[in-house]
Amino acid sequence: MAEETVKLPVVSQTRAPLGELAVPGTLVAGPVRESLLHALVQSQLAARRAGTASTKTRAFVSGGGKKPWRQKGTGRARSGSSRSPLWAGGAVVFGPQPRDYTYRLPKSARRAALRAALAARHAEGRLLVVDALTLAEAKTKRMVQCLEGLGLGDAHVLIVLAAADEAVQRAARNLPRVRVLLVAGLNVYDVLRYAHLVVTRAALEQLAARLVGEDT
Q1: CA dihedral 195, 128, 200, 24 (to 10 degrees)
Q2: What CA–CA distance (Å, rounded) separates 97 from 103?
Q3: Residues with Cβ < 8 Å from 137, sequence gap 6 or more?
Q4: pTM score, whole prediction
């Protein structure tokens, strides 16, 4: 049985209609599994943690080698070291130590989560396919004009390209609400972070080839 396809409208940089692009239904019209999206985002954020927090246990706190006072006869509680966790300036019990927080979900889960993120944007009407995205020069004002032509002048936009384009990437660097990614770098966190998703025709074709396979 042939796989069901979905036809997405393709527009120019001025939002003029240029036809349609047929993509597999599982790419943009599949179920939006929120639990899977949450798991993927947690995995991505965990991988970004520095993991450099470090506290000193009794083995690493300097000083405290001498017993503060004799065991008996002083009327005070016995103490073996001035670096005890009970003392000011003492050690830390079970404190954080440097560690790697990275963990990865299975490849099939990562692909399914990205498809779910794309499906969520498509269901919201915030997935826009443009035939191509080019700028005359690598200037921020050109990118602003481009976004205004697409009707996204004040929106938070994630732009996905099929191949590196220095003009587009440089022009978007100074816009905090805009991010440009290549297909290889597209991820769930950024798709959900930006309200609108602008994908070139070539990039969407690459995504279909990458995400629709045996694990769908």
Answers
A1: 110
A2: 18
A3: 167, 171
A4: 0.84
Neighbouring-strand partners of residue 153: none
Which amino acid, residue 68? P
CA distance 153 to 160: 17
Strand pairing class (5-11; 17-24): antiparallel
Q: Is the pLDDT of residue 2 over 60?
A: no
pLDDT at 216 over 60: no
Q: How far is CA 213 from CA 11, 24, 37, 53, 122, in A?
A: 27, 10, 19, 41, 20
Question: What confidence score (pLDDT) does residue 1 get?
Answer: 42
Q: Which domains does the chain have, with CATH numbers?
A: 5-49+105-211 (3.40.1370.10), 52-100 (no CATH)
**Strands laid side by side in the 127-130 sheet:** 17-24, 5-11, 127-130, 196-200, 157-161, 178-182
pLDDT tens-digit profile of 77-100?
999 988 999 998 899 999 999 999
> Can you name the residues that pair with 20 across neighbouring β-strands?
9
What are the tokens at 209?
Answer: 């080839």
